[in-house]
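INFO  loader      accepted 1 record
INFO  loader      residues=299
INFO  predictor   begin
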Amino acid sequence: MTQRPEKLEIRPRLPEWLKVKMPGSPRYLELQNLMKGQRLNTVCEEAHCPNIGECWDRGTATFMILGEICTRRCHYCAVTTGRPNGLDLQEPRRVAETVEAMGLSYCVITSVNRDDLPDGGAHIFASCITKIRDSSPDCRVEVLIPDFGGSWPALKRVIDAGPAVLNHNIESTVRIFPKVRPKGNYELSLELLAKAKDIDPATVTKSGIIVGMGETTEEVLETMEDLRKVDCDLLTIGQYLRPSRRHVAIDRFYHPREFEELRQAGEAMGFKHVASGPLVRSSYHADEQHNAASLGITV
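INFO  predictor   done
INFO  writer      dumping tokens
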């Protein structure tokens, strides 16, 4: 019997507003070599961010600390999942040296999930902030943290180091959350953002939502309301782009007009800044968001 060929999945054609040019400028290559020389990872590369060319041309990058292997498997994320190998205690020093070499006035630090560590890697986050401040005192540091398994002492350790912005992404709506983040917890993410304000009311908090994974617009608005209930200051909303056929399928592409409507809705809810657009990601123009929050205005 002749075996039927396996049916190939057709990849949806990207709309014009999601097409970007391939990176490769001299500034991009310079930063790429710098990262490799310092043995540092960036979420820009690991998560296949579409803005890597633009951001690296501007001299900005999001450092991904605690290794390149994540202990969780989120079904929208391109970062490698597995069992991490040890802990690099010299990483904060190398991050600080790179920030100084780049002459950054603003940097973002994120990480893989490290559920194998008692504090989820909070001390490495705190050390990065401290060492960057020592060598580049004018550089503001934004951290995009995991949930630390709900360890509030770990969260306090990061906040006590004094980040300019504390970011933790909710990523999706309460109904879709279990499908795309099976090891995460929607309520825990909200609780973490609320707890950050309890620990230090002056903390500027931030979160992000990825759309196009099966949620409705009404559910996105409900998630935005949930974030405001815990006094989240800043918000990013961007289009989900499927990293591979192993990841959750794209449900639909939001039109730029819909992103603008979500931005306006977020401003009406009281967010100090809402970055909403097809190519927006957590650290996209993060310095502009921080400036808006510092001035206490909506942009």
